[in-house]
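Lecture 7 notes: from sequence to structure.
We start with the chain below.
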Amino acid sequence: MTQDEVAIAVKSDEYILKVGEKMYNRQRENASHHENVRQTMRGLGRLLIQGRKVTPLKQMKDYILPQNFHHVVQAVKDVAGFNEKLNKFQKPTLATKLGQSIQRVADIMEAEALSCQNNVKKRAVQEFRRIYSLTWNDMISSAAYRTVEEKKWNKAKLIPLADDVKKMHMCISDRQGKCYKKLMEEKTSANWSNLAKVLLAQIILFNRRREGEVSKMSLEAFVNRDKSPVNEDVTEALSELEKKLCHHFERVEIRGKRGRKVPIILTPDMVESLELLVKERGSCGVGENSYFFARPGFETRLRGSDCIRELAKSCGAQKPEALSSTKLRKQVATLSQVLNLNDTEQDLLADFLGHDIRVHRKFYRLPEGTLQLAKISKVLMACEQGRLAEFKGKSLDQISISPKDTSEVGEESSGEESEDTQGKSLSGMYAFKIDLIVFDSAIQQFCFNH
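Predicted structure tokens for the same chain:
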């Protein structure tokens, strides 16, 4: 923590230190969350400093008294830059986070009161909580969230073009082969890092995964991945193509947002390169770093966003700024609307992407690992090959696509014949044009529905 006026205020207040200790104990094993602990403590420190200037409140414990609630509101408004005339915050997220931090202080004080059987203190905290629940939303939260939403209005919303994504996939595949060959020939930390950067970007791009989730993948998660064969009883419910996909791809479960389990699907080429990185960690100076995508000689990790940004600029994409992990996730979620997915398939895709489902529909399903390998991999390969538009109106069961750059559309009836050869060739000639047309229609439908 920077040693300034805020740090001095933090160190001088016992309850700010207790909030930091509580958060650290909860997130001790994840070093990437330690920055969040620091920011929370400094936020309370700034509130304490501003509160001393505009209110009679001197310590954090004074904030959790019901008679001081109006002083708390005034201090939060001042430190977050509230404009009374416009009813807007200059720093709206700070206002909402301070409300959460004040609740943490109240939690600690109530726990102390209960453990010490201090009924006076307990009653005061409970009364403060009651006032908070009744008035905080009207006085702080509503204006803060409205400010955040209004800042998003009228801003350009970039979504990657299918052609740009295809160019990036081809660039990454080409570079991955070259980096693999170089590491095989010369075991150096530079060659190890180059291959790791390419693989990190490739996994994020193929899986449409949040960059932080893949970047933080542990070595243990990959080494201990499930390699057991698919249950024979389960495969009876799959098509022949889906059975082959289950044997073609591998799956690794990693920690995702809010600590939830999220999967990543790996191609055979990815697995081969990842196993080479594991084998050469010692000879390339990676050491005992627990991260899979480690920085040789350091205890930190590579950043997926940096790797994707570098490759996006060098692949010849028309809009490289649109090729980020967040925008790529939005692309597959939006363009998947051209597929005729039923409710179960939509839920499966949302689960794979790690999206929260507000109204969760519960279905009896096959095991999720098998479904992700057999069905979601079809969507990922279609995006990689720039052929998602070819499957317009099809369900996941009707899509037939090969990992070896060949695809065909499965019909509802096994006896129906495909379109004539001339129609197929015309479809191939205008694949890119169809991608753009369907992309525009999908965006229009998405905007209309939301």
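Points to note: The first helix runs from residue 5 to 12. The radius of gyration is 27 Å.
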